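From the shared-data thread, chain only:
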Amino acid sequence: MKITSKTFGNLPNGAQADLFTLSNDHSVVIKVTNYGAIITSIETPDKSGKTSNIVCGFERLEDYLSEEYLGSYPYFGSIIGRNGNRIANGKYKIDGIEYNGAINNGPNHLHGGLEGFDKKLWKAEMFENETEVGVKLTYTSVDGEEGYPGTLVTNCIYTLNNENELAIKYEAETDKKTLVNLTNHSYFNLTGGQENIKNHELELSASKMTESVDLIPTGKIIPVEGTAFDFTSNKKLGQDIDSLPDGYDLNYVLDNEEGKFVFVGRLKEATSGRQVEVYTTQPGIQVYTGYWIPELTIRGEKKFGSYAGVALETQHYPDAPNHTEFPSTVLAPGEKYEEQTVYKFGLIE
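Structure, as tokens:
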């Protein structure tokens, strides 16, 4: 196993972003930049041993910064913060004090605001030991940034081991009560982008979902049995997708409010033979099949488009601060936010 780094490019303010390459002994190669803590690519072998990138991303920093693409590419591979997912009307209260976040998704606040953690330059520190290689990324969000109270210091630690496991560990501490709900927004396409994800098969350890209207939870937890949203047994994403106007974009309830480290799902694709298993300490997982991913022309090549990838975002529930019945996303001084998600890559048995 090894980790290397190189310059990825410069931001408009002149600051340098770097690209870190984590590789193991089984041809798994993961590239991460400290701009947005973005996973730019994950290369894994298919059943014939051929490696391909299985996530949506760009090869150049300039593409993440491009005026043409900015706001178009939907958070490819980014760390989302302070608060992943939506907050209704951007409003929430902590200890009776009302706060307002930017309205950047219809009438709602989405993924941390206009300039969330996905657009910040993180401090990076590489490390390696006998069992894993990794990079620790740190970002300090000041009091009032994007309307959030308190100065929040966040660590995102990416590691890769020889069991083909990509672990994402989150840590955060604050000096004032605030919201924290971190997730990674990688979009998987196990064909290496050769076709869309409708033939991918998904299985989830989730018999319930948060009911929502216009992507905002009503507060009700409802069963998925007998609906198009049921993935309790292995099912192709495309089986029922055409019955949904925008495909899948919902939060599944994992019955894991105690924060245990549990298996929550498996995505696989028969042609390539690849699969990825998901484990997490989080209470929910947002499944988004990428209906709104645009088709982009990058240096003459058409890429992406609707259903180009599926995001499996482990998280707390959407609009949690406005639903006391949901697991809390409030972090207080003296507490430490700690969550972990593991994506384990392999072949279908």
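The radius of gyration is 19 Å.
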